[in-house]
Design goal:
With about 230 residues, the protein is an alpha/beta fold. Helix content is about 45%, strand content about 20%. It has helices at about 10-25, 35-45, 60-70, 80-90, 105-120, 125-130, 155-165, 175-180, 195-205, and strands spanning about 5, 25-30, 50, 75-80, 95-100, 130-135, 135-140, 145, 150, 215-220, 220-225. The strands form three sheets. The protein has a five-stranded parallel sheet with strand order 2-1-3-4-5, sandwiched between helices. A four-stranded antiparallel sheet has the order 6-7-8-9. A two-stranded antiparallel ribbon has the order 10-11. Keywords: DNA-binding, Phosphoprotein, Transcription, Transcription regulation, Two-component regulatory system.
C-alpha cells in the first residue's frame, strides 16, 4: 500500500484530500507545516508528498528543496499564488507537479496516480540501488554517498564496508566477517585494518565520531549500522 503525506496548514484542505486518497486505498499521513513534513519523511517510508507552499515554521518551497536533497519521491505542490507557481515551474525546487488552489480533488487524485505510475515504471531499478539510513543515502549503482544532501568522498574500501553494514540495518558484523567480505581474503586476528577503516568512516560521516549515530560498535562482537 502506498503511503502519501499531505502537508498543508489548512486542516479542512487536509481533511478533503485525506478522504479522497483513503477512498482510493492509499494510506495517508498529515503534516501542518514544512518542518513536520520533513521530519515525517526522514522517519517514515513515504511514496508521494502533496505539499502546500504557504505554511508556518517552514514554507513548502524550502521543504521541497530539503526533501529533494534526501529523497527522489514524487512531490506535488499546491498554491493559490501565481508567483509561487512561477517559482515551482522554474524547476528550481525539484517538484514533479503543481496545482493551483482551489482545485478539483478528482484532478489531484488523477495526478497522484500518474506520479505513482511513473515512479513505479522508471524508479524501481534506481530505488533498489539506494540504501537510506536516516539522512544518509548510499547509491550502489553510482557508487556515491550523500549525508544531509551533501556528497561524501569515500575510498572504495570505505564504500564497500559502509554498503555491507547498511544493507542489513541492525545486523552486527564481526571484524572477521567485514574483512573477508570486503577484502576477499582470510582474516588475521591481530589485524586492526577493519578498525582503522571504521574510524575513518566515522570521521567522515559522524558529527561526533565518539558518539556515532550511524556506525555503532557492539562491544566484543563487531559493528552495525542502524
Amino acid at each position: 500500500m502506498n503511503t502519501i503525506l499531505v502537508a498543508d496548514d489548512d486542516s479542512e484542505i487536509r481533511d478533503v484530500i485525506h478522504v479522497y486518497l483513503r477512498n482510493e486505498g492509499y494510506q495517508v499521513l498529515e503534516a501542518a507545516d514544512g518542518q513536520e513534513a520533513l521530519s515525517t519523511i526522514q522517519t517514515t517510508p513515504i511514496q508521494l508528498v502533496i505539499l502546500d507552499v504557504m505554511m508556518p515554521q517552514m514554507d513548502g518551497i524550502t521543504a521541497c528543496l530539503k526533501i529533494r536533497a534526501i529523497s527522489n519521491i514524487p512531490i506535488i505542490m499546491l498554491s493559490a499564488k501565481q508567483e509561487d507557481i512561477d517559482k515551482i515551474t522554474g524547476l528550481t525546487t525539484g517538484a514533479d507537479d503543481y496545482m493551483i488552489k482551489p482545485f478539483n480533488p478528482l484532478e489531484l487524485l488523477a495526478r497522484v496516480k500518474a506520479q505513482l505510475r511513473r515512479q513505479s515504471l522508471i524508479g524501481k531499478e534506481e530505488f533498489n540501488s539506494l540504501l537510506i539510513i536516516k539522512n544518509l543515502i548510499i547509491d550502489k549503482n553510482k557508487h556515491s554517498v550523500k549525508l544531509n544532501g551533501i556528497e561524501v568522498s569515500l575510498t572504495p574500501l570505505e564504500f564497500a564496508i559502509l554498503t555491507l553494514l547498511a544493507s542489513r540495518p541492525g545486523q552486527v558484523y564481526s571484524s572477521e566477517q567485514i574483512y573477508e567480505s570486503v577484502w576477499k581474503e582470510p582474516y588475521g586476528y591481530s589485524d586492526n585494518t577493519v578498525m582503522v577503516h571504521i574510524r575513518n568512516l566515522r570521521e567522515k560521516l559522524e558529527e561526533n565520531p565518539r558518539e556515532p549515530l550511524y556506525i555503532k560498535t557492539v562491544w566484543g562482537v563487531g559493528y552495525k549500522v542502524d
